[in-house]
Amino acid sequence: MPDVPAAVSRALRGAPPDQLVETTDRALRSMLAASRVEVFLADYRISGLWPVLGTQLPEAGFLACAGVAQRCFSSQQPVLDARDDGHCRIWVPVTAWGERLGALLVELTAAPDAATVGEVGEVAGELATALRAADRETDRYRRARRRERLSMAAEMQWDLLPGRSVRHEAFLLAGQLEPAYTVGGDHFDWAVDDGRLTLTVLNGTGTGIAASLLTALTVNAMRNARRSGGGLVEQAELASDTIFYQHRGRRHVATLLLAVETATGRVRAVDAGSPHLLRVRGGTVTPIELERQLPLGMFAETRYAVQEFDLVPGDRLFVVSDGVYAAQPGGQEAYGERAMARSMRSTRLQPATEAVGTVMRELFAYHAETDLRDDAVVVCLDWLGASGPGGR
């Protein structure tokens, strides 16, 4: 019997970047005698799973999002769907390093054994990694993910994001950006390197392309410092100086910078007039009070100080921008006063990847389903526990 995952991996490495789905389809039909193979990708809002093949069928996304496909995507576990004709559909998540891209459907003419289900799952992992790499070479998969045209500002913001989730043995991290197709300045960024998670969340100012350009300048300045080995203080100060000398204090960016040591759960933080940081521990939502320092770019040569706190296994951190916390639709009290804490508590049985969507949906409901008046970012970090010496 052929090693199916290895054979598909070789085929994907030799495939053109825009033909990964067709390559997977041919390989699984040949090696597993599959009667049907489909790849579905989650849209920017994660409101449905949409087919890469047969995209001319508008109802396909709705159908794919219902029932077993949604269970597979949400649980990140294989799901079997036995059909009346004796066929069986295997749904497996298409996920790379914790980023949920979509789901793979493989229909067989008979019920599969556990080994076959495992092989299909490995194929989905190989496909996910290939799709991540191919995004730099083709627009095909991005087109499948968007349900409407993005504004220029949103196009810039989505290209700047690191992803929508990442998994590590010590944590699960996820973020969501809204309104997905017109978002301007709010943003998040992260990197995992040498036993440390670095997370930044920006509460952008302004709207449209001007806001996106300011965010891009800020994020790339912090990345430049981080990739040169600089810590949180160096990242904040380089970004602040870069913004100031570009805008002379007329523009500034409220930013929260966090560095989590994966071996200990120790968190170092720089609060530069930042978004709001809240901890959920044992069902209680508590703001983490940090010394609020000047936003990045307000004055020349601003200096920043680091504060520290500890996480314990089971802790959940939420970071939300002002577009979430301070939202006051129809003259109501701010969403962050009470309603947001209720929505956060309601996520206690959900992983971080689902929790960000729940808080965002509750925000939309608070707005009575009307458009958000401001950009909104929700980032959720589930601390699972120390990962051992060196964070490896």
UniProtKB/TrEMBL annotation:
Biological classification of the source: Bacteria, Bacillati, Actinomycetota, Actinomycetes, Micromonosporales
Record keywords, A-Z: Hydrolase
Pfam families attached to this UniProt entry: SpoIIE (PF07228)
Identification of the protein by name: Serine phosphatase RsbU, regulator of sigma subunit
UniProt domain PPM-type phosphatase: residue ranges: 168-383
MF terms (GO), sorted A to Z: phosphatase activity
Organism: Micromonospora halophytica
